[in-house]
Amino acid sequence: MFDRPDSGERAVLVHLTFHTGQEDLAELKELAKSAGTDPVYVVTGSRKRPDAKYFMGTGKLDELKLAVQDYAADVVLVNHPLSPSQERNLEGYLGVRVVDRNGLILDIFAQRAQSFEGKLQVELAQLKHLSTRLVRGWTHLERQKGGIGLRGPGETQLETDRRLLAGRIKQIQQRLDKVDKQRHQGRSQRKKAEIPTVSLVGYTNAGKSTLFNQLTGAGIYAADQLFATLDPTLRSVQLANNSEIVLADTVGFIRHLPHELVAAFKSTLQEASEAELLLHVIDAHSDDRDTIIAQVNLVLTEIQADTVKQIEVFNKIDLLDGILPHIDRDDAGNPVRVWLSAETGAGMELLVQVLVELFASTKVTRRCFLTPQQGGIRAKLFTCAKIIAEDIDELGASELVVQIDVKHLGLLKEVKTEELP
């Protein structure tokens, strides 16, 4: 249903400015290139409000049609959300496919998805987006059934499509619910083991994956393009003083992230909303830096992650003049911002220093000698401590090496123990 041509399509871009706000033209060009199209012409203009039928006025409509013909364009990309009727009317007038901003972002996500869960999430978002646009392309509404021996209530082709679409949406949602339960179990186990989760969040192409690779050595795909990362990746990171965190690399945000995507990626985005700390990665070199920070915080509010503690990571300082790696602190001396370059590695030790400072380990390592009658204590140790090694003799006595938080040391008051470095 969502196959795309292998070769790059020639695209005409439409970017209009409205008094109620506007998108970014440079971002539209990046989105178009990320989708694999070749932007050949840009139609720009301004209006007080969109036209109800064609979204744009007759003058711009004629300019757009002429550009499509002159450049033999395959697709028109509009930097705004279109209603189903506007999209349908434009396609009828221009004779080529018309894709709005939401559809373009969905298409990029479809290309980037690699994991089973990611593909399901994208398909769910696409189907919900498509369900409002099923009228397009169907000019016949005759009954499928009719005539002698075949009379019945019948069903139009459109009704059949909607029924099949609804069934597929329900099927995908059930599968994603299972994945969500698995993710929830993973988060519960990490909480039980008292391993804090740190999520990387930020605008698309801010450098999250490069930073993730620097901290973890994971070697995940990182590129100078929008939405290079779609599938979330989690890695354990060992810090100083025996402390450990789980670092999560998440999908990048963008202005007006389509609601279909926010809903479909709910389980993925929960890694951010349930984290102990958010590292908000920011492109320090961007001219639109403050606006982008505000847009990311809007999305964080939408996914209910705005109450999670946040450290701003101003990345790409190698592209700025006179900025050295450093840490900004508030009046109480707490870190609030780190300036670094994930590409060159400059300042990475400062970020690690902040993480150690925030997650200073309170864990100690003990060798415990438990009698067969202390099985209850052994069971509790498995729930609140990290078991490094265990040896059980033929009489049922246990020798365990555990890493345990000092607040749980009361469990060992009746147990013979030996302190380990």
From TrEMBL:
Keywords (A to Z) from UniProt: Cytoplasm, GTP-binding, Magnesium, Metal-binding, Nucleotide-binding
Organism, as annotated: Methylovulum psychrotolerans
Major subcellular site: cytoplasm
Subunit: Monomer. Associates with the 50S ribosomal subunit.
Protein name: GTPase HflX
Residues the record lists as binding Mg(2+): S209, T229
InterPro entries for the chain: G_HFLX_dom (IPR030394), GTP-bd (IPR006073), GTP-bd_M (IPR032305), GTPase_HflX (IPR016496), GTPase_HflX_N (IPR025121), GTPase_HflX_N_sf (IPR042108), P-loop_NTPase (IPR027417)
GO molecular function, one term: ribosome binding
Gene: hflX
Binding site for GTP: 202-209, 227-231, 249-252, 315-318
UniProt subcellular location: Cytoplasm
Family (UniProt): Belongs to the TRAFAC class OBG-HflX-like GTPase superfamily. HflX GTPase family.
Lineage, opening ranks: Bacteria, Pseudomonadati, Pseudomonadota, Gammaproteobacteria, Methylococcales
Domain Hflx-type G: 196-363
GO cellular component annotations of the record: cytoplasm
Entry-linked CDD domains: HflX
Known role: GTPase that associates with the 50S ribosomal subunit and may have a role during protein synthesis or ribosome biogenesis.
Cofactor: Mg(2+)
